Amino acid sequence: MRTALSATLLVASIACPASDTAFAQLQAPTTAGSKPKPVTTTAIRPPGVQTPADTANAMAQAERLALQSDLAWVGEYNGAITGDVSERMVNAIKEFQKSRGGRQTGVLNPQERSALAETAQRRRESVGWKIVADAGTGVRLGIPTKLVPQQTSDANGTKWSSPTGTVQVVLTRRKDASPTTAKLAEQEKKANGRTVDYNVVKPDFFVLSGLQGLKKFYLRGTFKGDEVRIMTILYDQAVENTVEPVVIAMSSAFTPFPAGPLPGPPPRKTVEYGTGIVVAEDGSIVTDRQLVDACVAIAIPGFGNADRVAEDKERDLALLRIYGARGLKPLNLAGGTGKTAVELTGIADPQSQGGGNAASSVRASVNGADLAPAPAVGFSGAAAMDTDGKFAGLAQLKPVLVAGPANGAPSQAAFVPAEAVRDFLKANNVAASGTSTDAKASVVRVICVRK
């Protein structure tokens, strides 16, 4: 418990592994009989070489949060889900790569990131992970609803439990006169015959973990004024491999005094990368409307700037046009058979591929209007092809909510079916008569520049 959970208590520090830094040894020449001069060693980083930490730091905050959350869910990362880059986070990426038999670079390629997201999503779904707001206390927290389906409430809080009591989540509220985290921590240490093997006390929160009877426990608490809020997770030692990744997610999701509604979309990036599908030889490109929203300039590398000529707010589709372009290969948009297994072809964010701009493909599943797992950043607007190689639709990335979507919140990735794309183009007088069946040849990178 101490090893797996103690890192959730403190924000990790940023570290850059020395193994990624090249060193050159500079030594002055010597002559026979002369006294050798001291050796001077100077660290030199070759131009253009980035450490894994550099690459992670270049990501948007929401992307780092999602990455840490996914790594925690697959059991590789046991640090605080804060978005801060650390050596622990880089090592967790390497361990995930090692588990898949890949090179341990510390930087996930699009296929690895997709596999990580898919695995994490399966884990979240397996425990029924949801962000909920407790009606009695107002506390916002993450609950593994399949592990603890039974819920009871009273004036002192709410309890979720498994049918046999193997796993329990207890949310308590009370009023204390002039509380401090130190005083609260001492009170909780002595309660219920607990044996504490780890504790941390900060001015604004405290955490305890250890044994309570035969069960393991993890407790996080805080206060505001005289109001005290404490979350306690109890679980049998036999299920710790299943529960401990959930505990890490619950610790990060615990919001005892929420100031407002569930988190909204992160701030728009100044420069955002996505994918467009070439649909006609006149330079028509269809993409995600939100990707190109509020752009002062839209660039298609290799072809120049593009104009945004139409949009569909209901389906979040946008039509771009580049002029005077040659060598375009419009994709054949003839619809597939409605199969749920698709292959997404897009161009990942340059940070995800070492500055490159190569098109790549990842697998996903269609569930109504949702796609799972969400592809890498840069795939918004990607082409979805079915298992027969026919156009199935268009992928869209949505804002990420840490540790999993809230009740009623949209999926991290949405799917627009082929028929809707064709209707949009027809409504805007685009004759989509492409013949290419090679999605990699028919997608382009879309760059949005905002103020």
What does this structure look like?
- With 451 residues, the protein is of the alpha+beta class.
- It has 3 domains: 2-24 and 39-125, PGBD-like superfamily/PGBD (Muramoyl-pentapeptide Carboxypeptidase, domain 1, Orthogonal Bundle); 129-253, Protein Transport Mog1p, Chain A (3-Layer(aba) Sandwich); 271-449, Thrombin, subunit H.
- Helices cover 20% and strands 32% of the residues.
- It has a 7-stranded antiparallel beta sheet, with helices on both faces.
- A hairpin with a 2-residue loop joins strand 10 (215-224) and strand 11.
- It is elongated, with a radius of gyration of 26 Å.
Q: Compute the CA-based radius of gyration.
A: 26 Å
Instruction: Compute the number of strand runs.
Output: 24
Strand fraction equals 25-35%
Side by side, the strands of the main sheet go 5-6-7-11-10-9-8
CATH topology label of the largest domain: Thrombin, subunit H
Approximate helicity band: 10-25%
